[in-house]
Design goal:
The chain is an alpha/beta fold. Helix content is 33%, strand content 20%.
């Protein structure tokens, strides 16, 4: 059984918002043991249904503007109970809304971590900025470390 889901999220048509998908693509080329790696892009309802599976951990990968230098990586534990609303959005994904959808579908969210990267731009356009592109290998290793730590805690 796969115990861990790594979910790349974001819209590749908005510059650095494609960060999550690119990390998922690179990590998915050689996925860690006991992990499923998927680029969900902006398919929020697909992600909500996937989270109905009994995962022990979900690592969401996304761009995350928090005021740091472009390319800065962050690791946060999101509020899994804070949002209500609708999942449908043709241009983006709102993780708290996905969490609410999982609850509405009768599921329970696993432990969750967000690995985020400070973007340079999320304006329309395809391709990552140089700062965010340089952060991809570090993000892949960070996620591998998070998975290893999880596996050491729960045999």
């Amino acid at each position: 059984m796969t115990r861990i889901l790594v979910a790349g999220v974001g819209n590749l048509f908005f510059g650095d918002d494609g960060f999550g998908g690119e990390v998922a693509r690179r990590l998915g080329a050689k996925p860690p043991p006991d992990a499923t790696v998927t680029d969900f892009g902006i398919r929020a309802i697909h992600l909500a249904y996937e989270l109905l599976s009994p995962f022990e951990l979900c690592i969401f990968v996304d761009c995350m503007p928090r005021g740091g230098a472009p390319g800065t990586l962050y690791v946060l534990e999101p509020d899994l109970d804070g949002a209500i609303g609708t999942v449908a959005d043709a241009h983006g994904m709102n993780l708290p809304i996905v969490f609410a959808a999982v609850r509405e579908l009768g599921g329970t969210m696993p432990r969750a971590v967000v690995v985020g990267c400070e973007p340079t731009t999320v304006e329309p356009g395809i391709g990552l900025s140089p700062s965010v592109a340089r952060a991809i290998p570090m993000a892949v290793e960070l996620i591998r470390d998070l998975i290893t730590s999880q596996q050491e805690v729960t045999p």
